[in-house]
């Protein structure tokens, strides 16, 4: 298939491109679109045939449900069978933005979109291009626009690399602002529970709702066959071809450890400035103790390690609070949970 590339710089001037993207979606096609978190691979959330193509293009397991993206809060009433008070509180504070809420699903949601679950994940993105395309089309099911298992895409170039020839169009809206996927919280159980950390932090959610639990899968590996609340958390994820090992220690001890290692294809995944003191090639992901810059750079850094032929990567461990929890959660999966403490 020929993949069209729409470069959108200005919502008004480039309106015809946005309309073309929306028309493809309304006809049941696939379009990769920019959001403030990562690029999404979008299709009409209410059209089972269209949604089926998402799973095929990504190679995504059929039991992993999709997030439905909306442009206005009111749309939630057509998608959910029940909108808890907590959803209204969170929407008021954090929408549009990088937060996905799981609520009981309405009848309009096809089984394929929610992977057969009785719930549906809903998010209202803040990216002006994403919002404009939703407005001009329909609610969009959109997982991250990467091949299943690979690091999520934060530029149109990443999307072309993973999905060129597999989708109808890619909308280039530049680099994504946050760089990690949205925070996912379920409001469908007795207590609100964080399923995936993101740019809206656990601390902020607790501030808004009071008690919020953290799902076990956020920081630990799920045994095969174990029942999970968020199916996405059980799969191999964000993995570059290279083996990744997280090394927990301060800058000095990390560099001493990295510099002592011997073997071929060893790389460091480090914070800015540390590359100058390493005797191995390094890829930088953000500044020490600046979780927002780490989130912004992480997926591009994992892709760069592959391009540079890394075989074994020792990664600096981020702190685990605030947005750092999201960075650590993604890095843990990239490392298949392998971590050394110095
Ligand atoms: O930032 C994001 O959320 C991006 C952009 C494109 O919006 N999308 C994204 O989608 O990351 P995806 O499909 O890669 O991740 C969705 C996550 C998966 O872990 C999935 O298992 C979980 O949300 N999820 C979706 N629906 C769910 C449901 N009904 N119950 C529990 N988990 C659900
Ligand atoms: Mg994903």
From TrEMBL:
<keyword id="KW-0067">ATP-binding</keyword>
<keyword id="KW-0808">Transferase</keyword>
<dbReference type="GO" id="GO:0061710">
    <property type="term" value="F:L-threonylcarbamoyladenylate synthase"/>
</dbReference>
<dbReference type="GO" id="GO:0005524">
    <property type="term" value="F:ATP binding"/>
</dbReference>
<dbReference type="Pfam" id="PF03481">
    <property type="entry name" value="Sua5_C"/>
</dbReference>
<feature type="binding site">
    <location>
        <position position="64"/>
    </location>
    <ligand>
        <name>ATP</name>
    </ligand>
</feature>
<comment type="function">
    <text>Required for the formation of a threonylcarbamoyl group on adenosine at position 37 (t(6)A37) in tRNAs that read codons beginning with adenine.</text>
</comment>
<feature type="binding site">
    <location>
        <position position="119"/>
    </location>
    <ligand>
        <name>ATP</name>
    </ligand>
</feature>
<dbReference type="InterPro" id="IPR017945">
    <property type="entry name" value="DHBP_synth_RibB-like_a/b_dom"/>
</dbReference>
<dbReference type="GO" id="GO:0008033">
    <property type="term" value="P:tRNA processing"/>
</dbReference>
<dbReference type="GO" id="GO:0005737">
    <property type="term" value="C:cytoplasm"/>
</dbReference>
<dbReference type="InterPro" id="IPR010923">
    <property type="entry name" value="T(6)A37_SUA5"/>
</dbReference>
<feature type="binding site">
    <location>
        <position position="142"/>
    </location>
    <ligand>
        <name>L-threonine</name>
    </ligand>
</feature>
<feature type="binding site">
    <location>
        <position position="37"/>
    </location>
    <ligand>
        <name>L-threonine</name>
    </ligand>
</feature>
<dbReference type="InterPro" id="IPR005145">
    <property type="entry name" value="Sua5_C"/>
</dbReference>
<dbReference type="Pfam" id="PF01300">
    <property type="entry name" value="Sua5_yciO_yrdC"/>
</dbReference>
<keyword id="KW-0819">tRNA processing</keyword>
<keyword id="KW-0547">Nucleotide-binding</keyword>
<feature type="binding site">
    <location>
        <position position="69"/>
    </location>
    <ligand>
        <name>L-threonine</name>
    </ligand>
</feature>
<feature type="binding site">
    <location>
        <position position="123"/>
    </location>
    <ligand>
        <name>L-threonine</name>
    </ligand>
</feature>
<comment type="similarity">
    <text>Belongs to the SUA5 family.</text>
</comment>
<dbReference type="InterPro" id="IPR038385">
    <property type="entry name" value="Sua5/YwlC_C"/>
</dbReference>
<feature type="binding site">
    <location>
        <position position="152"/>
    </location>
    <ligand>
        <name>ATP</name>
    </ligand>
</feature>
<keyword id="KW-0963">Cytoplasm</keyword>
<feature type="binding site">
    <location>
        <position position="182"/>
    </location>
    <ligand>
        <name>L-threonine</name>
    </ligand>
</feature>
<dbReference type="InterPro" id="IPR050156">
    <property type="entry name" value="TC-AMP_synthase_SUA5"/>
</dbReference>
<keyword id="KW-0548">Nucleotidyltransferase</keyword>
<feature type="domain" description="YrdC-like">
    <location>
        <begin position="15"/>
        <end position="200"/>
    </location>
</feature>
<dbReference type="GO" id="GO:0003725">
    <property type="term" value="F:double-stranded RNA binding"/>
</dbReference>
<dbReference type="InterPro" id="IPR006070">
    <property type="entry name" value="Sua5-like_dom"/>
</dbReference>
<feature type="binding site">
    <location>
        <position position="196"/>
    </location>
    <ligand>
        <name>ATP</name>
    </ligand>
</feature>
<feature type="binding site">
    <location>
        <position position="238"/>
    </location>
    <ligand>
        <name>ATP</name>
    </ligand>
</feature>
<dbReference type="GO" id="GO:0000049">
    <property type="term" value="F:tRNA binding"/>
</dbReference>
<dbReference type="GO" id="GO:0006450">
    <property type="term" value="P:regulation of translational fidelity"/>
</dbReference>
<protein>
    <recommendedName>
        <fullName>Threonylcarbamoyl-AMP synthase</fullName>
        <ecNumber>2.7.7.87</ecNumber>
    </recommendedName>
</protein>
<feature type="binding site">
    <location>
        <position position="144"/>
    </location>
    <ligand>
        <name>ATP</name>
    </ligand>
</feature>
<feature type="binding site">
    <location>
        <position position="60"/>
    </location>
    <ligand>
        <name>ATP</name>
    </ligand>
</feature>
